[in-house]
Amino acid sequence: MKNTGNRFFFSIFLLALPLLILTSPAFGQEKVKIGVIAPLTGAIAHTGKDMLIGAEVAADRINASGGIRVGGKKYLLEVPALDDQLKPDLTVTAVRRMLGGGVKIMSTMSTGPSMAALELADAEGFLLLPLATVPDLTARGVKLVVRVPGTNEYYASSMADALSALQPQVERVGILWNTDPGSKFWGEVFAKTWTGQGRKIVASEGLDFRKVTDFYPILTRILPLKPEALLVITMDEPVSLVAKQSRELGYQGFFLTYEGCGDKIGELAGKEIDGKYLGIKSYYVLDPKKMDYMKEAYKKKASGITPGTLGANGHEMVYLAARAMEKAGTVTDVMAIRQAIPRVVPFPESMRGILAFDEKGDNFSTIVLAGFVNGKWVYLAKVYRKGPQAPKAVVEYIKQ
Amino acid sequence: MKKWAIVILLVLAIVLPIFVQAKYPLHLLIMVGVWSIAASSLNLILGYTGQASLGHAAFFGIGAYSAAILMIKMGLSFWVALPLASLIAAFFGFLIGLPALRTRGSYFAIATLGFNLIVTIIIEHWDGLTQGGAGISGIPKPTPIPLPFLGKLAFTGMAAQYYLVLFFLILTLFLIHRIVRSPAGKTYMAIRGGEPLAESLGINTMWNKLVSFTTSSFFAGLAGALYASYHGFISPDTSNFHIGFDLLIYLLVGGVATMSGPIIGAVIMTIIPETLQFLLEYRIIFYGAFLIMIVIFLPRGLVGLWSSSLWPRFRRMVDGRNSP
Question: Is residue B74 included in any domain, yes or no?
């Protein structure tokens, strides 16, 4: 930039940018807003977009039928979204921005961002509906929080119960968990439930699946211990690499995944997992109408994203908030809305099959155990618990 | 002339919360303050001493976790935990500096980056101390300060927290300015200019680099402790090396080896991503292009641009004289 005049104006422009934020409101205030804060850019943007699109699909559906009716008045729903790149400090910035724009109900994704947002929920008076499974979210006594997915305790123990029912010949399981607190705890709960049934965990190793792509070293340590199933607690792409590399090393057993692993594993490692896979899917997969509705709605968004568990949770989140606002008779009293949420389940549009909530804000839902056979997803069983104190999950086989 | 500009900026910073009361802009200003302190700390070792540390996020994280652990597990008040946390970060800076500063250039950069990665891994896995990946939540705000005849000065509101960060930012800048202007500071700049030449003049380069690095770590730890108390929650992400790279970008954008560069860089690079949120993934393209333009066309950062093009114009306007 040889022209000093241009450089001068360029520098003034840059220094004036802060005024855009400091002086202008972040959002208009026309409709009832339910905010989504998720990673919309970066390596896992597809997960954040899945969540956002699920929420938008739900909002569109509700708006298409006239919106929600609260206190004799009709409101349309709007889903403003902000990108936090899964970084807790950016989540807090996004929460503040949403609050500045009049958003009083928000959803975040994953442990770190959700815990960061949780610090502000009661103090700033907004209802947090996090899509995260770590128990701390509802264990800290924060009033304005209702978890949308199940806890990892619920998923992990249900998976262990279901595995012993569906594949009774499997005794020895090896666990690979991602080094985030949710995944680690998932592995611990699975191990506790599994060994409680008198079966064995032959190995349990943590690694950062975001950074590691060569799993040969860890697999060469675990496979000689002869696991009959490998539980890999991370997302589709690294699970597919583990599947491929372990098959190369001669592993013949099963692969188990957690609720965050979606359908993409079938595209990435279909041959390796065919006939030897057990994963967790959302309840709506059992209803062809709901499946078609989600697929069509996602296609209309032209996003290139297929609906997954996060999309189902995003959809559920909006419906919970909408139905709770109607039940509570208010769109502004977040405590009343929070207290109304347990009274709106179960509801017919549910994608997650939530059956009930406890007083802390955790829910009990029906999950589906799926296999991958001959290149297709096959739904093997419905799994649910009858209540918070139920010792074991109920496993209902699905007729094929 | 320069002194009254500083006074004006100081007065503006002090009265700002009177005009900006919305929490979102105040939050951004608080984060700009925290990142300015952290970037200034890096400026001391990188800008003034010429040692490219890529691991400063480690000291930021150590400061944050030390403050959190001291307040929550040992029950110390913020006012005791803050200086202690900064000293703990400085201690680690001293320990790491001893072997790392024996290397130079890119070797030193990689050594500090390696240290950063080790710190993050320890934080992630030492569940008993740091609560691992779950992070530490419920970190308290500063306890109120009793004021004679005036009651108590509380730090629960956003404006109070803004003033707290502003206070420590001014203190940091003052101390770093004093260091840079002192004989020690001139020694650092001599080392930056040419380490073998500095050695030939009898300067103990190892000792001086170590002191600079330790001091720099102190201020990075201070920024981390302020961050922890403000947010109330920290996780292993708080020491992630990307924070160190962010601080480097703030210096490049604002101006390395200048007092105002870290602040200008922190302002621009905190606010631009927020302004461009609506572009979603395309903002990354804009962000990248912006950084490339800065590096190519403004190698001295915005402060360099300001001093080379704006100041002579302003002086001509005021004095009516031809300035170089």
Answer: yes
* pLDDT tens track for B45-71: 999 999 999 999 999 999 999 999 999
CATH number among 3.30.460.10, 3.40.50.280, 3.30.300.130, 3.40.50.2300, domain A152-258+263-283+367-397: 3.40.50.2300
Q: Is the ipTM of this complex over 0.90?
A: no
Give phi and psi for A131, each to the nearest 5.
Answer: -100, 75
Task: Collect all residues with Cβ–Cβ distance below 8 Å to B190 and sequence separation of at least 6.
Answer: B197, B198, B201, B203
Give residues 281 to 320 of B whose Cβ lies within 8 Å of A.
281, 283-284, 297-298, 302, 305-306, 308-310, 313
Is there a domain that residue B284 lies in?
Answer: no
Beta-carbon separation of A118 and B233 below 8 A: yes
On the CB side of B293, how many CA atoms lie within 13 Å of its CA?
A: 14
**Closest Cα of chain B to A380: distance in Å?**
33
- pLDDT per residue as tens digits for the range A212-260: 899 999 999 999 999 999 999 998 889 999 999 999 999 999 999 998 8
**Cβ–Cβ gap B302/A11 under 8 Å:** yes
Residue B285 maps to a domain: no
Angle at B29 between CA B26 and CA B31, to 5 degrees: 110
Do the chains contact at B275 and A83, CB–CB below 8 Å?
A: no
Residue type, B286: F
Q: How far is A348 from chain B (nearest CA, A)?
A: 34
Cβ–Cβ under 8 Å, residues A273 and A373: no
Partner-chain residue, chosen from B23, B134, B268, that has the shortest CB–CB distance to A96: B23
Domain around B130? 23-275
Q: For chain B, what is the domain count?
A: 1
CB atoms within 10 A of CB B104: 14
Which residues from B are below 8 Å from A184, CB to CB? 132-133
Kindly determine whether residue B137 and residue A179, on different chains, have CB atoms separated by under 8 Å.
no
Mean pLDDT of B139-165: 89
| pTM of the complete model | 0.85
Give the domain ranges of chain A: 32-150+308-365, 152-258+263-283+367-397
CATH class of A32-150+308-365: alpha beta
Asked if B134 is an interface residue toward chain A (Cβ–Cβ < 8 A), one would say yes
Residue B198's CB is within 10 A of a number of other CB atoms, namely: 21
Tell me whether residue B307 is in a domain. Answer: no
Q: What is the pLDDT of residues A334-384, one digit of tens each?
A: 999 999 999 999 999 999 889 889 899 999 888 899 999 999 999 999 988
Q: Which of residues 149-168 of B touch A (CB under 8 A)?
A: none
CATH of the domain at B48: 1.10.3470
Q: Does A305 touch chain B (CB under 8 A)?
A: no
Question: Of B321, B135, B319, B166, which is closest to residue B232 (Cα–Cα)?
Answer: B135
